[in-house]
Structures are given as structure tokens and as C-alpha cells.
Amino acid sequence: QVQLVESGGGLVQPGGSLRLSCAASGSIFSIYAMGWYRQAPGKQRELVATITRSGSTDYADSVKGRFTISRDNAKNTIYLQMNSLKPEDTAVYYCNAVAQVQAAVPPTGYWGQGTQVTVSS
User: Fold this and answer.
1) Angle formed at CA 67 by CA 65 and CA 69, multiple of 5 degrees
2) How far does the chain reach from its first CA to its final CA, in angstroms?
3) Average pLDDT over residues 67-72
4) Which parts of the chain fold into alpha helices (H)?
5) Out of 19, 54, 64, 91, which residue is the most buried by the measure of CB atoms under 10 Å away?
């Protein structure tokens, strides 16, 4: 199994910044794409940003130019630098990873427990 642990959420004023981290641990053979998703109250979970093992990134239009995803493969960790935060960024942010626990086992998606980000004055 693969465990994902997020950290770095909190309360921030509009225009402020936060940096989220997600560390993967457990029986890991290989980790492929990783990413951040978020879910606001009463809304569906949505993609925020993804990053491949080689570093290719993709972002939701709503966060382009404000958020930056990065990855440290040696530490099995991804980060989300969030700048110019807006009230509409308020949500629980979840980390996702596509990983293999063994070479003979197909890649599987794993989720973290989520971290709350609240943008409010």
C-alpha cells in the first residue's frame, strides 16, 4: 500500500500565499503522475494541477499563473505553491498519486486524507 500525507493547509487572507506538501510512503515500486485536487463544500472534486515523473505539468485554468506544482522524486514528494489566493480557492485539497507497489501489479490511484485551505479576511 501507498500512503499519502498532505500538510501546509490553513487560513490565509485574500492575496496571500500557502505551500502544500504531499509525501508518499509505504511499499512503493514506482510512482508515476502525482497531483492536487480540491473539493469545496457542495461541489465536486476538481483537478488543480498534475505533474508527471519527468516534470511535465498541467493546471486548471482557474489557477494558471497563480499556482505552481513541483516534485522531488528522491523524496516521493510533491508541492503546491499557491500565490494570490482568492476566497474561491477555499476547499479541502487532496493529493493523488498513481503508483505501483510491485512490478507485476498494475498502477493504482491513491488519495491522501486532505488538508483544508481557507481564504478569508
Assistant:
1) 120
2) 40
3) 98
4) none
5) 91
Q: CB within 8 A of 33, min separation 6: which ones?
A: 50, 51, 52, 53, 97, 98
Asked if 120 and 16 touch (Cβ cutoff 8 Å), the reply is no
Distance (Å, rounded) from C-alpha 13 to C-alpha 62?
A: 18
Between CA 22 and CA 29, with CA 26 as vertex, the angle to 5 degrees is 100
Bridge-based pairing of strands 115-119 and 30-39 is unpaired
Residue partners of 26: CB distance under 8 A and separation at least 6: 1, 2, 3, 101
Answer yes or no: are the C-beta atoms of 6 and 24 closer than 8 Å. Answer: no
Confidence at residue 43, expressed as pLDDT on a 0 to 100 scale: 96
Q: What is the pLDDT of residue 31?
A: 95
On average, the pLDDT of the chain sits at: 96
Whether the Cβ atoms of residue 76 and residue 28 lie closer than 8 Å to each other: yes
Q: Where is 100: in which H helix or E strand?
A: strand 91-100
Cα–Cα distance measured from residue 120 to residue 5, given in angstroms and rounded to the nearest whole number: 25
